[in-house]
Structure formats: structure tokens, C-alpha cells
Amino acid sequence: MTRKTPDILITNDDGVHAEGLLALKNALSRVGNVHVVAPDRQRSASGHSITLHEPLRVNRARMHDGSPAFSSSGTPSDCVTLSLLELFRKKIDLVVTGINPGQNLGIDVTYSGTVSAAMEAAIIGVPGVAVSVASNGEEPLYEAAAEFAVFLARLVLVKKLPKDTILNVNVPNLPLCKIEGVEITSQGTRRYAGRVERRKDPQGREYFWLGGDVAVDKLEDGTDVKAIAENCISVTPLHLDLTGYEALAKVNTWGIDGFDPSGK
Ligand code: MN
To answer: Which of 18, 82, 131, 143 has the fewest Cβ atoms within 10 angstroms?
Structure first.
């Protein structure tokens, strides 16, 4: 029996012209037919936002090296929805997002358009993998992440993924030969210090700038944060169910069910 050549959709949150997207496309072309549908502009930290109150446009676009792709006026999640439900209906076997220049570790995943786009794939029922380079403001090196994306894509195409689950991949910003290994990790804790800067514009009016590349990392064993700190590739399975199961029983003891809807 001959296997069908896999069809892979890629998108990102950095826009269709991003170098990381091109690196991903070139690498995954060794695995299957790669279809590119990415936002027409920078959409980093757009989280899982979707476009409901304006038209969504899809246009022919050029990638970083001039090769053809599609761009959309929508968010990363919109790109996945448009592609899987309309543009390439029933055709896509795998969605890979990235390669994001900047880590998506710990709580970053809730802000990340890269991770959210992979989640959108899982919601629709297609395996989703998000790939980021932990470059933390330095010049991103995409080679190791691209090579690992090829390795992982081949595996996921065979193994599939559990329902409502994506793989969040972070790769150290190192040459391939300097990577120490691969760890399967849990989502770590990673908080930002000094998130808001108060500034003055040239007219003397106050404005605010959200920042936060100063991360306070707790290096707990087995976490994504620790794996990256140890120069290992981190692969974290993330589930769409955000229920705090440990809190379920505790909150249940508060007497919340004592609320009387009849108003007495
Ligand atoms: Mn980004």
C-alpha cells in the first residue's frame, strides 16, 4: 500500500515574511507538501484571539525569499480555521506553527499566537505542534529547531496526538551540535518582573509600555524552563482543558452550592 504524501499546514504569529516561517517551510518540505497561510502582519502575543467583527481576507503573498504563500488579514488562529475548514478542507494531516523567534515557556503559552494556532488545530481535530526558539532577544538560530521539527513531524504523522492535545516545542538558541538532548517536560512557572513602564511622550503626556524580558524563572525539575536552561530541547504536551483539578475539591468545600437562585 502506498502512503499518501502528508499535507502540512504551517502558520505563525510573526507574519508571512518572517524568517522563522521560511526556515520551517524549507525543512518540512522534506516531510510532505507544505501549505503556508500566515498573518499579513506581526501578530505576536495575540493569544487565541479570533476575528468576528470584520471580513477576513486571504491574499497571495511572498515569503522572505520571494517564494509564494498565502497571507490572511486574520490572527494566527484565524489562519488555521480558514485553512482547515475552507481553503484545504479535509486535506491537512498536521499543523506546525513557528518557528517563533522567542521562547514560549511556562505562562508564555497563554499569550502566544504560535501556541494558540496549534491549539486551534487541535480544536478542529488535526494534530498541532508549536515550535519556538528560546532566543530571548538574541539573533535567533533556526537550524536546530527546523531539524527537530522534521524529526517530530515524522513521528506525529505516524503516532498522531491524543485528543485535545498539542505539543509545545522550545529549542535552545544554539547551533545543532551544541544541543544537549530532548526532554519531555511539564509547563513550568515563569513570571515577568517590571511588566509596565511609565513614560512621557514628546508632548509631555504620559503613556505606558508593556515589557518583560526580565523573567524570574523557578527552575523546577522536569519543566520546560529547566530543560531550556540546560540546553535541551523541551517538548511539552499541552491540553485544551484548563480545569484546575486540584482546586475542584477545595472550592467544593466553600459552600458555593449554598447560593439560592430563588433569591430567598
Ligand atoms: Mn512571535
So the answer is: 143
How do residues 36-58 score in pLDDT, each as one tens digit?
999 999 999 899 999 999 999 99
Distance from Cα 87 to the centre of ligand 1, integer Å: 24
Cβ atoms of 217 and 188 closer than 8 Å: yes
> For residue 18, what is its C-alpha cell?
518572517
User: What is the C-alpha to C-alpha distance for residues 106 and 108, in angstroms, rounded to an integer?
Assistant: 5
- Interval between CA 262 and ligand 1 midpoint (Å): 49
Split at pLDDT 50, 70, 90, the class of 96 is very high
Going from the Cα of 250 to the center of ligand 1, the distance in angstroms, rounded, reads 37
| Alpha carbon distance 129, 148 (integer Å) | 12
User: How many Å lie between the centroid of ligand 1 and the Cα of residue 128?
Assistant: 17
C-alpha 228 to ligand 1 mean position (Å) = 18
- Could you report the per-residue pLDDT of 98-144, keeping only the tens digit for each? 999 999 999 899 999 999 999 999 999 999 999 999 998 899 999 99
166 DSSP assignment: E
Distance 216 CA to ligand 1 centre (A): 20
How far does the centroid of ligand 1 lie from the alpha carbon of residue 112, in Å?
A: 7
Distance CA 208, CA 97 (A): 31
Q: For residue 98, report the distance from its CA to the centre of ligand 1, in Å.
A: 8
Quickly tell me which residue has 547551533 as its cell.
175
Q: How far apart are CA 70 and CA 58, in angstroms?
A: 7
User: Which residues on neighbouring strands pair with residue 223, listed in sequence order?
Assistant: 186
For 210, list phi and psi in degrees, rounded to 5: -80, 130
